[in-house]
Design brief:
By secondary structure, the chain is of the alpha+beta class. It is built from 13 helices and ten strands. Helix 5 runs antiparallel to helix 9.
Length: about 425
Amino acid sequence: MASNRETARLEKARPSRQMRYGQWEALDELGKGGQGRVYRALDTKVVDVKGAIVPQILRGVREVGQIGSPEESRERVLRFLRAIEGYIRRDDPKHCGALKVLHPEIRDDPKAKGRMEREVRVLRDQHHPHIVTILDSSVSAGWFVTEYFPLGSLAKHPTRFRRQPIEALVALRPLVEAVATLHAQGTAHRDIAPKNIFVGSEGLVLGDFGLVYQSGQETDRLSSTYENVGSRDWMPPWEMGAFQEEPSPAFDVFSLAKVLWAMVSGRHILQLWYFRQPKFDLEEQFPGDSSMAILNDLLAKCIVQHEAECLPSAPELINAIDESLALLRRTPIATQKRERGPLTEADRERLVDALRESQEGEAVTARTVEALKDVQAMVAKYAIEERHLFDLIPEGREDRRIRRAQVMAAQWTE
């Protein structure tokens, strides 16, 4: 059941007037950009709220209080409840799609329509589980619909793979395979970034093909001379402000490697190719963790200043990922350097806060997991014995709750 905060967000995002595009009814706004807006949209062929369900509810309201036999009354109540159930189902993700609509002021712009037509064409030609599926379209009317992902994009889950290089590489590899199929077709995505990668039930899924380039398919350039394409923080430096007759697959390789850095670091932005600068270096962020050196070696093949230094396409990146995974799986997990001496006051406060946070609420949330990871990291750093953890907790805290945190931490870090 949605929380009050989530319900308020959905209500605020709902369009002020009903908007229908073919069989799709816009429910609430998911995002917007320079080209258009994206809505969560209901498939009215599956759940027709206005045409069937609302009239059934109104009819049920009138009928429920009518006098009749017990059997008739029971049937009227059941019809009424089924209609209400149908209305509730309008928010079921499996009945929804992601509706992309061009802004009204550019709906007749040839370049905007050309980009949408190209995006729809490329998506219709793809049949890969890690590339978003197109469900419906009307380019002439300026809209199309793809599958909807209720968990949203990877950008909304920055700590999902934090300090988990093996898990991050395993999750990213199928996405790189999907990009490899594009490269084999002479297609470059050119806008790979966490905001365009969605968290699906079967893994990560690449979406937003609005800037896709197909070799030999474009009679007119849809990106102007010296016009930057892609998200600036994720595009390679050799493409910034440059005009490329035919963008190379290395564009996507650079972006994919930056996504990998973001997944493991848990951070949003890596400036240019500066992953080795102290404030961005994974080895500096996670000192003593030898797996980060292996990951940095992989990043060094992709996050580079010059195109000639970058792995040329996704298949080569897949090989590099496999080599890194083989090395990581041979690397001992317990590589964290342990400090000598007592806890510093700052680390003591951090550990107590993490233990408290781990006990908030009954369900395990992302914040709970991050708190538990903080507990485990501090235990490893100072070689704290379990019995000493209890000494850090202010009076009044129950030992069994702290013990529960330790058990949960072990389960989440196996």
